[in-house]
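Let's do one together. I've listed all components of the complex below, 544 residues spread over four lines.
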Amino acid sequence: MPAEFSYVRRVQFYETDLAGIVHFSWYFRYMEEAEHALWRHLGLSISPPEPEFGFPRVNASCDFKAPLRFEDELEVRIRVESIGSRSIRYACTLCLGDAVVATGSMTSVCVAHDADGVVRSIDVPEAVVARLRGMA
Amino acid sequence: MPAEFSYVRRVQFYETDLAGIVHFSWYFRYMEEAEHALWRHLGLSISPPEPEFGFPRVNASCDFKAPLRFEDELEVRIRVESIGSRSIRYACTLCLGDAVVATGSMTSVCVAHDADGVVRSIDVPEAVVARLRGMA
Amino acid sequence: MPAEFSYVRRVQFYETDLAGIVHFSWYFRYMEEAEHALWRHLGLSISPPEPEFGFPRVNASCDFKAPLRFEDELEVRIRVESIGSRSIRYACTLCLGDAVVATGSMTSVCVAHDADGVVRSIDVPEAVVARLRGMA
Amino acid sequence: MPAEFSYVRRVQFYETDLAGIVHFSWYFRYMEEAEHALWRHLGLSISPPEPEFGFPRVNASCDFKAPLRFEDELEVRIRVESIGSRSIRYACTLCLGDAVVATGSMTSVCVAHDADGVVRSIDVPEAVVARLRGMA
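Okay, and this is what the predicted structure of the assembly comes out as:
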């Protein structure tokens, strides 16, 4: 699965903090935006109107290498690093032009909600696996 | 209903923007935090685990008079300005010590979700009205 | 100044709340995004790298008419409602296709920072007024 | 430095997402709130009115073990895991009563701004090191 999906968006004013740069918590949201854009690109939605399953995070990590500023046009390059039977791991590179401003990863597990509201880990649906593998 | 409820909280780093002050969108969240703290104070929850009704906003407005900065200890004074058959209107004063930094209001309507997912305006439940009126 | 500027963006997952719809505080951020996109469209920046002046809000208000949901593609139509000597007022209509989901307004004043850090109200720079009026 | 500082706060409505639980990006903000509360507890501020130095993140990571819900009263236990000559690393455990809902870490470097605005890595000031070590 070497293929990469590119997602571009501009830094908004409210994403900056008093240090004049984007607050670090936003890098995680940028990565998530890229993930969801990738799903849409593949004809999927991470949360359709009546979801049968969901993908809560079990890990998220980011290395910050350079600041982002208001109105910067940021690119998030995301790829599916691995698909386990019950989990998906993404690797992201955040860029400003040619410069890498951060690298990060996110791992989600697939869950279903039983009738009584209990959350239960399940296999990633085959249709999702097929689409994500098809990226390569 | 002249009684006022006081809610105090500290300004967080991520609530500031590059101008060095709290972003205006946070004032609305501060008002909402005060509303929900008021409900808890009255033995209610705006969103219990299995909610039978909800309170979406129909209006929110704020006049900003002075900036808020990182680590400021803010007080939100909230009161129920009026209760209609299907709506609740709150008035808020945001203070830093004796200084008023903002005044605002929020109006919510009471809604229920039908079995088919349709949202429908309903009367504010009597138990809620009684508690909110009891503030006075 | 009847001319309107249109800004389109998609609702993100983290903008929704447990009620399954976009939290009302985000509508204010959507309006601000449209304002800043309008400034860029006119060749301006609300906050250039070394700003000589800024535009803090003195009022923001919004009437919410319909919910927004994850992945909705929202349009913000923004126009300059009036320009005072020291203030700018914007009017916004938020749409989902043909449906109006909210209407709102924001008023900002122009300020400069003296050498000693004191904030002082000033006239809106003529270059800004000319560009904003040129919209019409 | 085994000593731990405890920071308690309640989950707010706008921190939840359509899945009905707190969005993962907030866990990083909770950890930061605990860090800044720790600094205040030690008589310090991470960002005093006229800062001579700052502490941008170089890494943040979190393992999510259980969901957080609206009105949960969350405890963040934070400790200084290590102090390098130019960096500080924190380890956090997020708890709901006795249950661990997440563990995470954040590493920051100390920087100063030169007169020309260039950011430059510097040694963590001795006064800061002394206070943080004094926790033990």
